[in-house]
Amino acid sequence: MSDVHTPTYDTGAVPPPPASTGPAAVVEVVPAAGGPLKLRRLSIGLALVYVAILAINSGGLGILIPNLVSEIDPDRKVANLAIVTTVAFLANVFAQPVAGALSDATRSRFGRRTPWMVAGALLASGFMVGLPLAGSVVTIAIVWLVVQLGVNALQAAATALVPDRYPAQQRGGVSGLIGVGITVGNAVGTVVAGSLAGRGMLPYVLLGSLVLVVVAGFVVLNRDRSSRDDVVAARVGIGAFLRGFWVDPRQHPDFGWAFAARFLMVIGFYGAQTYSLYILRDYIGLSDEASNAFAAKIGVVLLGGVLLSALTSGVLSDRIGRRKPFIVWASVVMALGLAVPLAFPTTTGILVYSFLLGLGFGAYISIDLALMTEVLPSSMTSSASSAGRDLAILGLATTLPQALSPSIAAGLVSLTGGYPVVFVAGIVFVLLGALAVIPIKAVR
């Protein structure tokens, strides 16, 4: 990280020159709160952006892609789904941090984040519409990969707006709204895809259009200031650029523990979620048509659990000044939810599992983003100039385990011949994630 910082305030004025023009010089962008109405509009807008992002991901990964894969080769559907998801997510390990770093350095009349949000939305929506035209597992994997590249560029830029625009003491509230957006998006995606899975191109067009409309509305109503006149840090070689993505956990242990906590939670959460459609068919015993319809019902129940926790958790966390107890509590609730289908492998058990998972996940995600913004190395050095890169590196704690969890789950299912082991593994990983939060010192 740099040790020379020159403040640039979010007022549109030309910033003063940096104290040094050497390789270590960076630009500090101090968050500008703005008026309450402006921040409220921005918070709602970010929540809607996450609704669109998660709608594509949940509808595509949870229902549409499993259906496409199953139609091509029913006997190898578990292994083939693992291939599709792993290829896409492993590539995105690089996409999100690179997009975040490049957005930090973007100088345009539209600001640093807007160009990446718009480009990501266009890429994701265009290839989402083309997904049902894929005729093989390889083609599905390639098209879904491009969709995810667009989604990651959009998400990296949108997430960086939190440290860009909000003071630390106000991030719990926006984090809570984003948490709601994430789960509403999960519900929207599963409802749209589940109820329209047999309607040809329609669910793909609706999900792709949702991203375009939401992002267009966001960038118009929440215009970023021009960054054309911002002082640019000295150019560095490709080696130094790549080294910038490494954050030494020995120098920044809180950053490392936050990364580990989310990494473990996501593995536990997504193992069962990735194969939810196949679990309904092969573990619960529903038909293909019934499982699609029931998946939509699961999305609504999951949303109900989230709304009970996410809206209140972020605000309450800000009010009492604590983050870690909420994360631990949320992880325990998710673990309890994952245990329900083991005891009750019925549709009722799945609904109870979904509600508890939503209750825990809503609280977790509404607090976790606020916690992560408070352990960024850039925050520790009083610079927000690399927030996009640093948050995207922490985003790897989501994309990397998403890449690994389908393969882990597929291997466990193949070894044991059934899906109960997926729930057991989920419990273990989620609880380990809760333990990883405890050593963080910078956040209470």
Which bin fits the share of residues in helices?
Answer: over 70%
CATH topology descriptor? Growth Hormone, Chain: A
Strand content: under 5%
CATH class reads Mainly Alpha
CATH architecture name: Up-down Bundle
Gyration radius over CA: 21 Å
Q: How many strands?
A: 2
Number of helices: 15
Mean of all residue-level pLDDT scores: 79
Distance between the termini: 25 Å
What would CATH call the homologous superfamily? Answer: MFS general substrate transporter like domains
- What is the H-and-E element order? EEHHHHHHHHHHHHHHH
**Biggest sheet layout:** 2 strands, parallel
- For the record, the count of structural domains works out to 1
What form results from the Cα inertia axes? globular
Q: How are the strands ordered across the major sheet?
A: 1-2
Secondary structure class reads mainly alpha
Poorly predicted sequence stretches spanning 5 or more consecutive residues: 1-33, 379-384
GO molecular function: transmembrane transporter activity
InterPro entries: MFS, MFS_dom, MFS_trans_sf, Sugar_transporter_CS
Domain Major facilitator superfamily (MFS) profile: 43-444
Transmembrane segments: 47-69, 81-102, 114-134, 140-162, 174-196, 202-221, 255-273, 293-314, 326-344, 350-371, 391-413, 419-440
